[in-house]
Amino acid sequence: MSVAASQKTDLALLLLRVSLGLMTFAHGFILKVMTFTPAGTAQFFVSVGYPAAFAYLVILAEVLGGLALIAGVFTRLAAVGLIPILLGATALHAGNGWVFNAPNGGWEYPAFWTVTLVVQALLGPGAYSVGRLLPTSLPGLVRA
Q1: How confident is the model at residue 129 (pLDDT cuts 50, 70, 90)?
Q2: Model confidence over 37-50: pLDDT tens digits?
Q3: Most buried of 1, 11, 27, 122 (most Cβ within 10 A)?
Q4: Arithmetic mean of pLDDT over the chain
Q5: Per-residue pLDDT, 18
Q6: 27-64 as b/e, with b when 16 or more CB fall inside 10 Å?
Q7: 109, 21, 3: which is closest to 65 by C-alpha?
């Protein structure tokens, strides 16, 4: 791959990673913590048949996973860790139909978000990431 093509790929990975991270962080912190509150989010989870404890795990995963994606630290692990959350959201919205403006939202958005996380997990963080600056000599450290 040429240098110019490699730079374009790394820029594309930066854009994908940061946009996924911002969306994930915003969904976890702004929506679930600031808007609905953790207790309100837990009540919603119970109302749709999920255990209340899952709400707190989802909030933690979305906030930390979003920050990890933004920084490009543990990118693959963060992306893979968020996939089950988006699969759960896709399943939750499956009965609402395809389109996002369907009552209670459609399933296409969380399904697409799942696919983008799979792509990010497969490709890794790219060159423009904080994870690339971490030392490699620490045992068990997974930078990408």
Answers
A1: very high
A2: 999 999 999 999 99
A3: 27
A4: 92
A5: 98
A6: bbbeebeeebeeeebbeebeeeeeeeeebbebbebbbb
A7: 21
Q: Please enumerate in sequence order all residues whose Cβ is within 8 A of that of 85, keeping only pairs 6 or more positions apart, or say none.
A: 58, 61, 62
Concatenating the DSSP letter of every residue in 69-100 gives HHHTSSHHHHHHHHHHHHHHHHHHHGGG-SST
Q: Give yes or no for a contact between 24 and 65, defined as CB atoms under 8 angstroms apart.
A: yes
Considering all CA atoms of the chain, what is the largest pairwise distance in Å, rounded to the nearest integer?
A: 53
φ, ψ of residue 19 to 5 degrees: the values are -65, -40
Q: Which two tokens stand for residue 101?
A: 């403006």
